[in-house]
Amino acid sequence: MAPARGRSVEAPPGPIIDPAPTDPVGLALKVEFLKRPESYPESPHTVEPLETHLAWVFLTDRHAYKLKKPVRLPFLDFRTTEARRLDAEAEVLLNRRLAPGVYLEVVPLTVDHAGHLRLGPDGTPVDWLVKMRRLPRGRMLDIAIAARTIERSALRPVAEHLAGFYRQAQVAGLTPQGYRDWLRAEIDAHALALEEPRYDLPGTTIRETAAAQRAFLKQQAGTLDARVLAGRIIEGHGDLRPEHVCLGPPPVIIDCVEFNRDFRILDQADELAYLGMECERLGDAEVGAALLAHFRRASGDDPPDLLVHFYKSFRALLRAKLAAWHLDDRTVARPSLWVNRARTYLTLARQHILES
């Protein structure tokens, strides 16, 4: 059977901040404490706070501290302190596979006897933070693409790092039919969500792209089955995008999907195609092509081009859905950004399925 991916066909609302009633300190107080340089034992000069849908990240001079929000979504539930602790521990453990030396530890956020918040073990834990070594911003792949500062020689070590990782990865226990059934169910879910009238996206493009993807599953069933039988469907990273790749040296890859193993089960060629599609969206398709070429040589895995195009289309349709879902978050600051991004992904999805 195909894995149960836990993704909802219905478009969910934005993440719901819903802490357990036993939480003695609210999120706002924790964030305000962690914004202050004096809160950290390393005494940084400044702290740069960054907010995402699921977490707050605090950048100090040398480290990054991630505090998960007490959110609830169809595929995760971080409402309790214990749930956030367990997820933080999983994040450190899983990301050490591709980013050794970056994910340092899980740090408790505690309250002392006087009721003051502290970072460290002296007190009663009220939350937990992932502590990471801060990576050089200019060496992140998305930033390097935007700045046009990529040394092409830096791409080969990234591909070799991924090839080595996949050689050691656990092979998923899927049948060929189960894998194709899962792909079909995902295509249906993406298309159904994207056709919600409130998103005002081009319905004809969505329907034609999804229909072409379904046709690929039938016409290239043998190609897909061969991937399963060759052991190419593995437990990978799950969210391999340019903003998660640090060129190093040495290269490291951060921010795998830690909260749901099913999201990490995929074809390794799918993961490389996903990365290539995102590089193309950022304006440099040659980077993705070079990474895939280096990966083919390093791994001995030579997925056909038509399969790579299918996976790019498949991932672009998923990313279009995720972009559209941002519009259901009542706190989203720039709705037009997410509408335009969804439309860009739809264009890429249509383009690549036509090339498959």
Layout of helices and strands, plus pairs?
Elements lengths: L15 E2 L9 H8 L13 E4 L3 E5 L3 E6 L2 E3 L2 E2 L3 H15 L7 E9 L5 E3 L4 E10 L7 H7 L7 H14 L7 H19 L8 H17 L1 H9 L3 E3 L9 E2 L5 E2 L11 E3 H14 L3 H15 L5 H21 L9 H21 L1
Antiparallel strand pairs: 1-5, 2-3, 3-4, 4-9, 5-6, 7-8, 7-9, 10-13, 11-12
What tags apply to this protein structure?
13 strands; 6-stranded antiparallel sheet; single chain; globular; 356 residues
How far the N terminus sits from the C terminus, by CA atoms, comes to: 26 Å
Write down how many β-strands occur, each being a DSSP E stretch of 2 or more residues: 13
Instruction: Kindly name the structural category.
Output: alpha+beta
Largest sheet: 6 strands, antiparallel
Count of alpha/pi helices? 11
Spatial sequence of strands, sheet with the most strands: 2-3-4-9-7-8
Radius of gyration: 21 Å
| Shape summary | globular
Q: Identify low-pLDDT runs.
A: 1-15
Beta-strand residue percentage: 15-25%
- Indicate the mean pLDDT: 92
What string, H for helix and E for strand, traces the elements in order?
EHEEEEEHEEEHHHHHEEEEHHHH
